[in-house]
Amino acid sequence: MGRLKILLVTLIFTISTVIFAERSARIYDLQGLSAEIEMLLRDSDKPLMEGNSVTVFFSISEDKTIQYVTVAAPNGEMSQLLQEKLFDHQLDGNKWREGIIYELTIEGRTSVACLSK
């Protein structure tokens, strides 16, 4: 009977750990969105050069689309392009939360942009 109790406690502990780990996962995937923005800039022939950065502020609607977006970029063309492309953009995943304003900064490297932490 003692071994059965230990087995049962171990099983409950394992299951609760897995459930807790699932709940504490990231609320959103900024790296995925960062890659999408990088591709938008590359496709538009406006690469983000080393030393420059782009900061995007946005909020999410109920249907997981970007409903508000403001971009701080090195030039007005890049800012306008990102605002137009990202507005009403459907986001992947179901862990985005509406009512939160997200901030994403992308730093330029020689020819590749990356997520700034």
Q: Gist?
A:
By secondary structure, this protein is α+β, with helices and mostly antiparallel strands. Helices cover about 40% and strands about 20% of the residues.
CATH class: Alpha Beta
> From the structure provided, what is the oligomeric state, counting identical versus distinct chains?
single chain
Q: How would you sum up the major sheet?
A: 4 strands, antiparallel
For the secondary structure, the number of strands is: 4
Shape: elongated
Q: Determine the number of helices (DSSP H or I, runs of at least 4 residues).
A: 3
End-to-end separation in angstroms reads 52 Å
**Largest beta sheet: what is the strand line-up?**
2-1-3-4
In N-to-C order, the SSE pattern is: HHEEHEE
Low-confidence stretches: 112-117
What's the alpha carbon Rg, rounded to whole Å? 20 Å
CATH fold assignment: Fusion Protein Consisting Of Minor Coat Protein, Glycine Rich Linker, Tola, And A His Tag, Chain: A, Domain 2
